[in-house]
TrEMBL record:
Belongs to the Ntdp family. Mg(2+) 2 binds at residues 105, 107, 120, 123. It comes from the Bacteria. This is Nucleoside triphosphate/diphosphate phosphatase. The keyword Cell membrane does not apply.
């Protein structure tokens, strides 16, 4: 698997379990790209939904993808602090087209004070039935939720104080 070079711009694509395209983020600047993690930055980029709708992100964000965990993290830089949106899904893959992962509906929103809320359990239950998620996937995802909560509580990885700010400064250098 080739990896994007620092400073290059890529698309991020999320898919659903049935293989359908879910969402595309069009311009993420690569700040770090290795076999184990990809860190990117973007600001007010165009996002395309599977139903054809388009919208722009509202603020600068640092995106964190890991090859070993079933989640990715987006740190959104707002006036009142850093908010995190965590997507539960497969570890990333990368090809010459885009960075890709399968989105499994569950999300965790983390607030600047590091409190958090698990979201979209109803959507997960619905899609689990509609798309026949294997039992193994549900087990992996429940463990990933626990791992993610542990990272949040211990301020590990992208939740470490200064992490988002550090990578945002690097992002500003590549704009």
């Amino acid at each position: 698997m080739d990896f994007p070079t620092v400073g290059s711009t890529i698309e991020v694509q999320s898919y659903k379990h049935n293989g359908s395209l879910h969402r595309v983020w069009e311009e993420t600047v690569i700040l770090k790209g290795t076999t184990q993690e990809v860190i990117g930055g973007n600001d007010r980029i165009l996002v395309q939904e599977s139903d054809g709708r388009h919208w722009r992100t509202r603020e600068p964000a640092i995106c964190y993808f890991t090859a070993n965990s079933w989640f990715n993290v987006i740190g959104m830089i707002r006036n009142d602090g850093i908010y995190y949106y965590c997507n539960l899904g497969t570890p990333f893959t990368y090809d010459s087209e885009a960075l890709k992962y399968i989105d499994y509906d569950l999300d965790i929103k983390v607030f600047p004070d590091m409190t958090y809320k698990l979201l979209d359990e109803d959507e997960f239950a619905l899609h689990k039935k509609q798309m026949n998620y294997p039992a193994e996937v549900e087990i992996i995802l429940r463990k990933a939720v626990d791992e993610l909560i542990s990272w949040i509580s211990s301020q590990k990885g992208p939740f470490e104080p200064g992490f988002i700010e550090y990578w945002y400064e690097r992002f500003l250098q590549h704009r």
